[in-house]
Amino acid sequence: MRDLQDAREQLLAVSLELCQRGLNRGTSGNVSLRLNDRAGNAGFLITPSGIASQKLLPADMVWMGFDGQTSGHCTPSSEWRFHFDILKQRTEVNAVIHTHSMYATALSTLRQDVPAFHYMVAVAGGDSIRCAPYALFGSQQLSDNALLALKNRQACLLANHGMIALGHGVEKALDIAIEVETLCEQYLHALQVGSPYLLTSQEMQEVQEKFKGYGNWGENNQKNME
Q1: 127: which residues sit within 8 A by CB, 6+ positions away?
Q2: CATH number of the domain that 134 lies in?
Q3: Is residue 223 part of a domain?
Q4: 101-134, pLDDT tens digit by residue?
């Protein structure tokens, strides 16, 4: 079992890095990490609600079990529902990052998927980065929408909201979040000039095959694209 204190410190470090990189600001965004409690109950550690990352302490992180029980002196993030549902249903995922980053959020207001304008779109697990339909933050409907958009994917946009990135660990989830934000910035710039040429499904499948043995992205690659 991962050490509880180590996991708390990991969440704090990632939360601070997200702010340092401009992917989150103030109290926006949240991070979770799969972790059994000391009694062996299955669950996860999640950042608390309403506390700016710069003011967070490791002890502020909240443990939540898949039975809905919580442990800690803070309230879990208002977005705990999609963290709960993703980690419960996607057993290969151990970390979830949610951001309100500038470019991903801007693109999410268009309520359109990010197409295969660049081969690195494949880091999200397919030939597009889907945009989940809008729903009220913290709602079960938002979680349901996110789960559908994340099917066979490691990242998605949330309409008029932000993005979600997944990983085997928090470092992988952070890598994907950074790459998705970069892609959103590039795509927005391209749209200002015209309509980008898109890679074909075959070309993106070739990228996916290449990624299987390519360092950082290999473990996040999905065999089948939809």
Answers
A1: 115, 116, 121, 199, 201, 204, 205, 225
A2: 3.40.225.10
A3: no
A4: 999 999 999 999 999 999 999 999 999 999 999 9
> With bands split at pLDDT 50, 70 and 90, how would you rate the model's confidence at 1?
very low
Angle between helix axes 80-89 and 140-149 (nearest 10 degrees) is 40
Both tokens of 98, joined, read: 């949610």
CA dist 193 to 111, 186, 188, 189, 196, Å?
20, 11, 9, 7, 8
At residue 197, what is the residue type?
Answer: Y
79 is known as an active-site residue: yes
Q: 9, 17, 79, 209: which is the annotated catalytic residue?
A: 79
Question: Which residue segment(s) compose the domain that 142 sits in?
Answer: 4-218
Percentage of the chain exceeding pLDDT 70: 93
